[in-house]
Q: What sequence folds into this?
């Protein structure tokens, strides 16, 4: 999570969308007063080398109006939690953004991340056993209600959508990064082919992610 006073921007970090790489890139445009939550140790070192700054101001955060948010902000802080903890003027006036990804694709990346420690786990079993992981992003960044964000950037069209909101310079840094990207094989079965091997998995994802599928018009990618 990042609150950038220099860009008047709040980035809420959803899961398996390239969020760590995006935070590394955005940190390069942050000032000393911005709020930046920690990354994992390796990514944090890479961010400091790239951006000249790492995690900062995330504990007992002092805001420009002099108020203090006690306790520490965390990487995947939810939008409702942030709305309750940061000054109302900042929540109102800053652009609140996140990155969203087709859930049929995102679940596969989440599976490969989990499989690093459970090498025998197959995709169908992962989907069946982890329904709480499939729809986690709507909890972090609600699509409706009082904590709804201003901008949901499409992972699949990120370059154009960042340019449209004046963050083309962040894209230029982001495009060269791949934090955590090594978990998923670069080559292999397509999204559609993976689901074809596990017929119940697509239906399970469709049920769990019905809200976001309807909201963004997602479908199972073709081969």
A:
């Amino acid at each position: 999570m990042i609150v950038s006073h220099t860009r008047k921007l709040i980035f809420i970090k959803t899961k398996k969308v390239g969020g760590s790489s995006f935070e590394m890139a955005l940190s390069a445009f942050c000032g000393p007063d911005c709020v930046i939550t920690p990354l994992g140790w390796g990514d944090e070192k890479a961010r400091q080398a790239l951006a000249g700054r790492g995690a900062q101001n995330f504990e007992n955060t002092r805001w420009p109006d002099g108020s203090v948010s006690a306790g520490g902000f965390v990487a995947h802080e939810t939008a409702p939690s942030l709305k309750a903890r940061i000054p109302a003027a900042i929540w109102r006036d800053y652009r609140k953004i996140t990155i969203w990804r087709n859930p049929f694709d995102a679940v596969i990346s989440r599976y490969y991340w989990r499989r690093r420690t459970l090498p025998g786990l197959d995709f169908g079993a992962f989907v069946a056993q982890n329904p709480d992981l499939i729809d986690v992003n709507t909890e972090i960044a609600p699509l409706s209600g009082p904590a709804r964000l201003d901008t949901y950037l499409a992972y699949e069209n990120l370059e154009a959508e960042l340019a449209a909101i004046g963050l083309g310079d962040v894209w230029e840094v982001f495009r060269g990064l791949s934090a955590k990207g090594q978990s998923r094989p670069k080559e292999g079965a397509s999204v559609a082919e993976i689901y074809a091997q596990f017929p119940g998995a697509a239906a399970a994802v469709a049920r769990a992610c019905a809200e976001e599928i309807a909201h963004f018009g997602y479908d199972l990618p073709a081969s």
